[in-house]
Amino acid sequence: NGKPSTIYAVGDYYNVNGVEGVVFEISDGGRHGKIVSVDQAELEWGPDGVNTPVNSGTNGWANTDAIMSLSDRDNYPAFIWCRSKGSNWYLPAKSELLAIYRNRDAINTTLRARGYTEISNLWYWSSTEGSESWAWFVSMDDGYTYYNFKLYNYSVRAVSAF
What we know:
Order of helices and strands: EEEEHHEHHEEEEE
Shape: globular
Strand content: 25-35%
Largest sheet: 5 strands, antiparallel
Number of helices: 4
Strand order of the largest sheet: 1-2-3-10-5
Low-confidence stretches: none
Distance between the termini: 16 Å
Radius of gyration: 15 Å
Helix content: 10-25%
């Protein structure tokens, strides 16, 4: 029937064909969903003063693909880091980061049990641009969303769908 046989729940460890993460969102009864990477980086979003084609607050995949199609994509470290994990990885949109925040305790329980760095109370970049100078971030301390200069180094976690 082509459907995965494993049923996942939020907080489950996912490791299939070398794709490793922690489930933060499920669909189709747990057969599909999204995972967050087991590692993170501190990176700039991208250059200040440049409008990009990434304004989706819900679709980080589309935002990342838009950046990766730019001739100067190497100027966008957060996006490059996420995509360097594989073609299915991307920088999450603002709403995806909020889903990670809402499920942070379950995610961190799994990360801690496996010896990985937990999602901290830091600010994490989303792929959602606010203006030519700003992009949105989410505080994993309290779910606060705001925007700041793209040149700042904030935490980055990659996301992939399964």
